[in-house]
Amino acid sequence: MRSFEPPRLRMPHSSRLKASIIMSTNFFMTSQSISRIATFRRQLLRIHGTVLTLVALAAAAATTFGWITGTGPFGFMQQTPMVWVMAVQAYLLMTLIAVLLILGSTQANTRKWHVVGALAHGAPLVAAFSSLDIFASMGVLGIVWIPITFHMVFLSLETFAAIYPHHG
Fold first, then answer.
1. Is the C-alpha dihedral spanning 109, 110, 112, 113 positive or negative?
2. Apex CA 160: angle with CA 158 and CA 30, to 5°?
């Protein structure tokens, strides 16, 4: 396969040399900055996917433990098993999304995976913020800010990565 070469323009020797140096310098700087941005995007997806996988699987295990034993912060699920069914589905679906983020980090254009990563945190945030009174009545309002912060951080990072201009 032949590579494409643009037609060469005839210029005096000194002009060609200056143009060549200017073009090479601009290309190098642009190429380097694009590479750093692309590296940031790929690392963000890998880190986000890995952390989200671990957190979602741990939450699924914790809710299952609470449902089976009736103890711990999720012990109430033994009396309301339908809550466990919905919670474990949500955690396992979040695990699936996390694995897709890791796989998406290998693609040339990662923008759509950053959008998926950002949107994945929307539903838990809406649920958390609209249920603050429920958390307060359960006595866990103080600790609920940990998952809210987790979701806000990754929502912000993925949104930034999605809207920051992609080059190439």
1. positive
2. 115
Query: What's residue 51's pLDDT?
Result: 96
Cα-Cα-Cα-Cα torsion 141, 143, 148, 153, nearest 10 degrees, comes to 150
Q: CA distances (Å), 70 to each of 42, 63, 144, 153, in order? A: 41, 10, 20, 32
| 93-116 per-position pLDDT tens digit | 999 999 999 999 999 899 999 999
| Cα 154 from Cα 165, distance rounded (Å) | 19
Query: What burial letters (b/e) apply to 38-53, b meaning 16+ CB within 10 Å?
Result: beebbebbeebbeebb
Alpha helices in 70-107, H assignment, sequence order: 81-104
Q: Which two tokens stand for residue 106?
A: 């290998």
